[in-house]
Amino acid sequence: MDGLQEHFLNTVLPYRLYSLGCLEMALSLVREYPNGASLQCKFNDKLKVQGSSSIITNANVELGIIHCRVLMEFLGVKVDKNMNLISAGKPRDSDVTIESFELPKLTLEQVVEPCTSDKELARKYIAKTLFAANKLIAHATNLVKLEEDSIDGYIVTARAIPVLFKNYFYNPLKLEIPNYKVDKYEQPDEL
User: Fold this and answer.
1) Can you give the residue range of the structural domain that contains 104?
2) How confident is residue 137, by pLDDT bands cut at 50, 70 and 90?
3) pTM for the whole thing?
4) Do the domain assignments include residue 85?
């Protein structure tokens, strides 16, 4: 294994996967407090930050959604302009992908395989999340509107991606998936 692969295994992928745990935590807070809530954040029992819960939620939601897109593209899946999941084309020479580890890109069927409920709904949720990364967060457009199912969709995506990584990346490499869960928060109801 070369230095770049080790860097991805030890630093980049654990960081990006952990952001999905932060996304899920932030979404559970947004769901519980849709208009925000007061926040006090302590470091070593000293109050350091006080204000709106959006201090925690906004950045974690936006970054988590961006990381969803990056991780899915790593696995070989992206979204087209019509909000359909598609297989990623040939990566640029500088891109690091699952193929950089001599593993195959995921098929579109594999993407929804771990979803135990409605696979078409899961496909829609994942596509909407990846689309939102580009059109809602990375660019100022009027193409995306938050719908009532957006939070559910983002949570489904945040939960599905680690399963995909475990099944199609870490297990074939005979490695343990890094911890991607936030240590303590009140988890949302099962979807």
Assistant:
1) 3-170
2) low
3) 0.86
4) yes
